[in-house]
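thought: fold this chain, then report.
action: predict
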Amino acid sequence: MTRACGAAGLVIVANLTGCILPDRDIRIESGIDNENAVRIVQRAPMLEEMDQRCNPPDLEAEFDATYCPQVRRTRASGLVLPPDGDFCVCPAGDRRAIASFEIYAEDADRDGEKPRDTIFGVVLIDPDAADEDPQHAVAYRDHWEPGRAGERIDDGDDQAGDRTAPPNGRAAAGLSVFPLDDSTGDRKIDLCNDAGRPLVPGLHTLRFMVTDRPFFRPRALDLDGNPAFEADGDPAFGNEQSGVPDLAAGATYATIDYVFECRDPNDAEAECLCNEVDGG
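observation:
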């Protein structure tokens, strides 16, 4: 029996009562323009032998990139401890500030060979979902401007002592890097004293959030409480709410958390190393 299938006029000769269409050319039109979620990428620990393969003494020499990581050395998520003693709440700053570090994120959405989405980031301290104003959690502004876009980097960008290579087994998704750095240039982060608001002794969570759309902006209201409009008739919006992904615009987001403890320098059991207060 011969049967014609569909408007394309596909003809299948078989003793069947229906048509089987190959699915290799079928694409579902979902209407979603953000098919891939943004994600934070961490570097896996490297064995000494792997490090030697990726970082031979001569930077210009050929090297085996088979086992080289995709991202540079980063700080692992989880508990952050000083090499010795404690992090402390110090009026003039804590000498046990940690070295600045970088966070990496990727998004597989592409326009041909180029990444489609820009990735934005914000640093939060002790975020509370019940807080009526999410801006209360925005912190460490001197180390990262809230809502700023990450810097696009090339996979396999060589650097002495820390070489990387494109990922094995899958296409490179396009990395963005977010350096948490001090604008003064000393490349230190005083966890307990640089948040931008006082931290009390105890455990705290530093969260870095990335999203592939600008952060949410609420509709602005006029004096009567009604939605406001611009002079050209377009809807008016308020300030960007850093830390609130714009889910209505199709945004995806990812987070990474670092936990640390701040001690009271007046606690006899705390091992603090505070800077001296001028005139003290």
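thought: worth noting. The helical segments are 48-54.
final: tokens above.
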